[in-house]
Amino acid sequence: MTHDMAGPEPVTQPMHDKDAIFNELRATLAELFELDPARITLEARLSEDLEIDSIDAIDLMDRLRRQTGRKISIESFRSVRTIQDLVQAIHKLVNES
Amino acid sequence: MALVFEAQHAAVLADSREPSVAVTSDRTPPRPFRDLHYVRVISSVLSFLLFGVFGTILGILVVPLLLAFPGSRIARQARVRRMIRLAFRALVGFMNQTGCISYAFSGVTSLGRSGQLVIANHPSLIDIVLLIAFVPGAACVVKRAAWRNPSMVIAVHAAGYVANSPTESMIEKGSALLAAGECLIMFPEGTRTVPDRPAHFHRGAASVALRTAGVVTPVFIDVRPPHLSKAVPWYRVPVIRPHYSLSIGPDIDPGPYRERPAPVASRALNEFFKSSYASVVRTT
């Protein structure tokens, strides 16, 4: 939990909470990639464990843009390797501005 | 001396030939010097020189002129694409007349439709030259390096061609072109393939197809012997004249794939692309 310095968190929106982000993300990934939700853990690596590649990342960005209503650039996800990283990146994005 | 003779000979021949609608080079009877290897070496070097010199001249002098005439952005782009098509047509004609290559392109009239994604395998450096020469009005996805090449940068920019990287912008721009009703040419293999090795299809083309293509039409390119491939430097000119056979496969409707989530659908569509090519073009 290293990204909690983004200031006071509005608690009204569920996507602002990391657990909520993880749950939402798990549902999204399971649907988009037709994955077993049990495989989607915080430690799972996107490319090695879940076979999510750069083209998938683009489809995922499209989906996250719609879900969060934020303009998400793929640049923000360059260093993402695991689901944990992805949750943190989304958490950081939705708590910015 | 031979160099000058070849160039003049080709010029005279080009002038005396009637404009032709057929897109096969097989109509011209073979001339005796045609399959001399040294002639092909000279004409290959000349073809590269022509590409570089005329590319630069057209870019610096003709493109600004075409852009200066009034018209919408689309109309200006169309003018530049037409110029590139005619220039490539001339280059292909030169290569054919001087014995550098021969070619046969069947079914070409089904290319260039609105919202059509044309995909092709990529055995040779000049695949795109042949495709652009014969597909009217098409845009294409070109490698990033074209924007750094002085003889190409002005034309590819003015024609509204799409760079192949970064992937996200390629997919967005490519699908925007198709959504606007243009025809787009892509090589799913991304880069030239090494002869006799199984090809790897990237999912970029499938992803673009799923987003906005009305129809996907595969073009199968077969070059024998291998020519301007990745495995051999360009100056290693084959002893036998390379023949390019281009043929068209049946239209693929991306519609049914759209019922599934994008990542699953693009994998399935890409597998379908691969299997269509595996049955037609040598891949192993």
Tell me what the structure shows:
- The complex is a heterodimer of chains A (97) and B (284).
- In chain A, helix 1 packs across helix 4 (83-94).
- Chain A is 49% helix and 0% strand.
- Chain A is built from four helices and no strands.
- Chain B has 284 residues and is α/β, with parallel strands linked by helices.
- Chain B has a single domain, classed as Glycerol-3-phosphate (1)-acyltransferase, CATH 3.40.1130.
- In chain B, 45% of the residues lie in helices and 12% in strands.
- Chain B is built from eight helices and seven strands.
- Chains A and B meet through helix 1 and helix 3 of A and helix 6 and helix 8 of B.
Q: What is the makeup of the main sheet of chain B?
A: 7 strands, mixed
Structural class of chain A: mainly alpha
Distance between the termini of chain A: 20 Å
Radius of gyration of chain A: 13 Å
Q: Could you tell me which chain pair has the largest interface and how many residues each side has?
A: A-B, 15 and 13 residues
* Architecture (CATH level 2) name of chain B: 3-Layer(aba) Sandwich
Helix and strand composition category of chain B: alpha/beta
The sequence of SSEs of chain B as H and E is HHHEEHEHEHEHEEH
CATH architecture tag of chain A: Orthogonal Bundle
Average pLDDT for all residues of chain A: 80
Approximate shape of chain B:
globular
What's the shape of chain A? globular
